[in-house]
């Protein structure tokens, strides 16, 4: 029996996961600018908009790691419908309340639901993908997010600007519609987790300490790159409406600009595999983060709408690289049996960035101007480009997902190189071409 991993289950589950993620992310992408517009209609200033955007990520900070621990030792699928229900409830109630603190609270519930869905979905992709499929599958999985980010802002812009600029009423309508759209995701989640993969998870004697996971080479870099990229995407979504208000850009046009950015991200992820072959992982991460940083700072310039559209399109293409490759980087580097926890730590970093970045953006915007936060994001992305120059963590033959298993679900370990070579020689030298018993003269492994 060889140690070569078996291919993962058929890809129908991945298609249904992408569809569900598209609806869930579309609801969130529709709700985030709608929340900003509704807060403005209720009298919020730039600082208050930043605080509300930050609360979206606050609750997930406290539950991401426990959810990751639970997923490492249990099933992934139950988190998906739970996340959908929380997103739908948060969207609907954000549109029904009429006070800024209540909006902030329900925005936090929406963020908690998004976290539940994403932890479950990312862990599912890591668990049900063979190692050689992971870059591709994570790239296709994130297409669902990009589709939602493409459709959500267009729908929000059309609804919000469709009734004479009455922001309070139309933004509430957009939030209710986003709640209904998210609920559609439930139709794609049936039997999405395969029993074979739930039975072949790595067995661990206990919890891997968080300090050990964070001390593994490759994990911190993947977390920080993801944090920088997501913070840029988040600030673009939350603050481009504010920039549009100051530059007299209509909400519908702002929605089209955000969707153009998302379309470019989809295009990037569709060609991810050829880009990896052409440039390699490290060069692709570094170049994309560096260009994204320069372009993000360019959003701060008082350019015309067509020029802004070009900047956002190229920026969206560059931002499309960071998320899927950071997922693969973290999963490859993480210890076996703690990969869902490592992904949860990555999401914790993302949410920390989503708390700090909008709050800092609100303070900077209030003190300096609404374009200044984009300069801050540009600096962060250029720093992420430096992290991309660092090497990855462990890149062994079975870096991700469950260890190879035989038909009984028992782990199989590939023989060490020296044993493999001696076994190959014994096959050549054995009489009659039959290999000798490879266990007969094997020396004990060092360390037991």
Could you characterize what this model shows?
By secondary structure, this protein is mostly helical. Helix content is 70%, strand content 0%. The protein contains 17 helices and no strands. The radius of gyration is 24 Å and the shape is globular. It starts with 11 loop residues before the first helix and ends in a 19-residue tail after the last helix. The relative contact order is 0.16. Residues 1-9, 197-205 and 393-448 have low confidence and may be disordered.
Task: Using brief descriptors, characterize the structure shown.
disordered N terminus, 448 residues, mainly alpha
Overall morphology: globular
Order of helices and strands: HHHHHHHHHHHHHHHHH
Strand content: under 5%
Per DSSP, the total helix count is 17
Q: Segments where pLDDT lies below 50 for 5+ residues?
A: 1-9, 197-205, 393-448
How far the N terminus sits from the C terminus, by CA atoms, comes to: 22 Å
Please tell me the overall pLDDT: 75
Can you summarize the main beta sheet? none
């Amino acid at each position: 029996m060889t140690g070569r991993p078996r291919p993962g289950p058929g890809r129908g589950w991945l298609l249904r996961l992408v569809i569900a993620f598209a609806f869930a992310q579309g609801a969130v992408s529709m709700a985030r600018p709608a929340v900003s517009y509704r807060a403005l209609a209720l009298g919020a200033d730039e600082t208050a908009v930043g605080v509300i955007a930050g609360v979206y990520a606050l609750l997930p900070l406290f539950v991401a790691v426990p959810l990751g621990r639970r997923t490492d030792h249990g099933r992934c699928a139950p988190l998906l419908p739970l996340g959908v229900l929380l997103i739908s409830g948060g969207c609907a109630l954000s549109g029904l309340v009429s006070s800024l603190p209540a909006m902030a609270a329900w925005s936090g519930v929406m963020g908690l639901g998004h976290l539940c869905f994403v932890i479950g979905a990312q862990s599912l992709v890591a668990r049900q993908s063979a190692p050689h499929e992971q870059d591709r599958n994570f790239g296709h999985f994130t297409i669902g997010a990009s589709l939602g980010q493409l459709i959500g802002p267009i729908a929000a812009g059309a609804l919000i600007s469709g009734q004479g600029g009455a922001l309070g009423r139309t933004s509430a309508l957009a939030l209710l519609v986003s709640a209904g759209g998210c609920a559609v995701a439930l139709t794609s989640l049936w039997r999405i987790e395969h029993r074979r993969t739930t039975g072949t998870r790595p067995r661990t004697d206990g919890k891997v300490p968080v300090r050990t996971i964070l001390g593994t080479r490759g994990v911190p870099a993947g977390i920080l790159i993801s944090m920088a990229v997501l913070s840029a995407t988040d600030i673009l979504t939350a603050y481009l409406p504010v920039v549009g208000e100051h530059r007299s850009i209509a909400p519908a046009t702002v929605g089209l600009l955000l969707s153009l950015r998302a379309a470019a991200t989809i295009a990037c992820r569709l060609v991810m595999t050829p880009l990896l072959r052409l440039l390699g992982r490290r060069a692709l991460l570094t170049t994309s983060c560096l260009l994204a940083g320069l372009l993000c700072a360019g959003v701060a310039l008082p350019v015309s709408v067509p020029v802004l559209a070009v900047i956002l399109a190229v920026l969206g293409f560059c931002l499309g690289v960071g998320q899927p490759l950071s997922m693969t980087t973290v999963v490859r580097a993480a210890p076996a049996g703690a990969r869902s926890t490592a992904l949860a730590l990555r999401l914790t970093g993302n949410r920390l960035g989503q708390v700090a970045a909008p709050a800092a953006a609100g303070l900077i915007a209030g003190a300096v101007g609404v374009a200044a936060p984009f300069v801050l994001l540009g600096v962060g992305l250029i720093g992420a480009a430096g992290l991309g120059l660092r090497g990855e963590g462990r890149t062994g033959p079975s870096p991700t997902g469950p260890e190879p298993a035989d038909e009984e679900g028992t782990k199989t370990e590939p023989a060490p190189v020296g044993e493999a070579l001696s076994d190959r020689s014994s096959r050549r030298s054995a009489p009659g071409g039959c290999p000798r018993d490879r266990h007969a003269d094997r020396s004990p492994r060092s360390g037991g």
